[in-house]
């Protein structure tokens, strides 16, 4: 759907079989992903999984060894960066130090031939308003805070009205409270322009807050694509369960289920695995569990909203329980029985990455 601000574009991005190798190292292994037009899409994965490489291929700063890339339905696999309907915002958001804020934002427009000065001025003013920096046009970048500089960097990319705005870890250089505020702002700018935003991040909370859809990347392979809620509630495999939120992951089968209550079985061979959310774990009387369902409290902390209790099981596994404060106090060294409702068990498949090797 088009945004509320007129004149902005939006395109879908379709990667098919994108493969990139550096030396003998396969950094992207036949990546298939479809990013819908006008969506906020996040590529999420740990350091070194290939996120930036994929973003650079979409931006036209790198070329895949195999596969195709379509933007807005047009094959752009080998189109030079400056001829693509994309624009990339770098992590540092480096601005030209000798230009003021307005000149920085207008820079990309002034290099476009035949753009009347009045149009440049209007578009720059529109951008200053969008990123809530009216009145800052004459300021030098050196006088801005980190968050303000990043706002200007994003405005400088958006002013060219790309169909797809590419963002590489755009908030990682900011302190946490500013990150939280700017997540909401980024989301608002995407909605107001209707432009497709594709953001690379290793921060799952950030991806969950920003994105309509998230692709979880693991060593060059996409493990799962879905909304934050889908990934949280139905992780397809152990990698996704581990990366999204704070799952307790058990190797081996679920133990006996009595009246809908289950207990962890002995850790098995890893062929079967399941996950239980910290908020779904509960502690029961020791009499109610067999020895394999017991653990020892290691840490207990009160966060205001909840009680977070770390437990080590008899098999040496570290678990985390998030309990309502009304559940009482737990002290390190205390023995507890561990249980969960059978309905809260999420069975996990093998990561896709393990299957392609
Ligand atoms: P980070 O979050 O740390 O930036 P990332 O997921 O963005 O990680 P990439 O930057 O895409 O990861 O890098 C993926 C792998 O490819 C890394 O092992 C990296 O060392 C390697 N790599 C990236 N670019 C090159 C290059 N030009 N030459 C050789 N190896 C490269």
TrEMBL record:
PROSITE patterns hit by this protein: ABC_TRANSPORTER_1, ABC_TRANSPORTER_2
Cellular component annotations (GO), alphabetically ordered: ATP-binding cassette (ABC) transporter complex
Location of the ABC transporter domain: 13-244
GO molecular function ontology, one term from the record: ATP binding
Domain of life, per lineage: Bacteria
EC nos: 7.6.2.9
Main enzyme class: translocase
Xref: Pfam families: ABC_tran (PF00005), TOBE_2 (PF08402)
InterPro entries the record matches: AAA+_ATPase, ABC_SmlMolc_Importer, ABC_transporter-like_ATP-bd, ABC_transporter-like_CS, Mo/tungstate-bd_C_term_dom, P-loop_NTPase, Transp-assoc_OB_typ2
Gene3D superfamilies given in the database record: 2.40.50.100, P-loop containing nucleotide triphosphate hydrolases
UniProt keyword list: ATP-binding, Nucleotide-binding, Transport
Descriptive protein name: ABC-type quaternary amine transporter
């Amino acid at each position: 759907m088009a945004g509320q601000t007129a004149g902005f574009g939006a395109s879908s991005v379709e990667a098919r079989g994108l493969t990139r190798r550096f030396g003998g190292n396969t950094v992207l292994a036949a990546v298939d992903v479809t990013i819908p037009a006008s969506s906020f899409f996040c590529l999420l994965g740990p350091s070194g999984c290939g996120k930036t490489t994929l973003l650079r291929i979409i931006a036209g700063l790198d070329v895949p060894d195999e596969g195709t890339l379509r933007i807005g339905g047009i094959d752009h696999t080998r189109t030079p960066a400056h001829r693509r309907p994309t624009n990339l915002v770098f992590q540092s958001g480096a601005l030209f130090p000798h230009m003021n804020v307005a000149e920085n934002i207008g820079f990309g427009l002034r290099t476009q031939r035949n753009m009347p000065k009045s149009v440049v001025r209007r578009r720059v003013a529109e951008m200053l308003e969008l990123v809530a920096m009216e009145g800052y046009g004459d300021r030098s970048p050196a006088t801005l805070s980190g968050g303000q500089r990043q706002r200007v960097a994003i405005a400088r990319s958006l002013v060219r009205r790309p169909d797809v705005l590419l963002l590489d870890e755009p908030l990682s250089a900011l302190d946490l409270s500013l990150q939280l505020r700017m997540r909401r702002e980024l989301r608002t700018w995407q909605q107001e322009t209707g432009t497709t935003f594709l953001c690379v991040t290793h921060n799952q909370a950030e991806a969950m807050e920003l994105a309509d859809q998230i692709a979880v990347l693991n060593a060059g392979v996409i493990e799962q694509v879905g909304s934050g809620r889908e990934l949280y509630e139905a992780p397809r495999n152990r990698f996704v369960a581990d990366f999204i939120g704070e799952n307790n992951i058990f190797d081996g089968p679920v133990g006996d289920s009595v009246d809908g209550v289950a207990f962890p079985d002995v850790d098995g061979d890893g062929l079967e695995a399941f996950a239980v959310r910290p908020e779904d774990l509960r502690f029961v009387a020791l009499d109610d569990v067999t020895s394999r369902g017991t653990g020892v409290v290691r840490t207990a902390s009160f966060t205001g909203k909840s009680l977070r209790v770390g437990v080590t099981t008899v098999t040496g596994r570290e678990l985390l329980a998030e309990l309502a404060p009304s559940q009482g106090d737990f002290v390190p060294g205390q023995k507890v029985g561990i249980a969960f409702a059978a309905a809260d068990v999420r069975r996990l498949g093998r990561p896709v990455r393990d299957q392609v090797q």
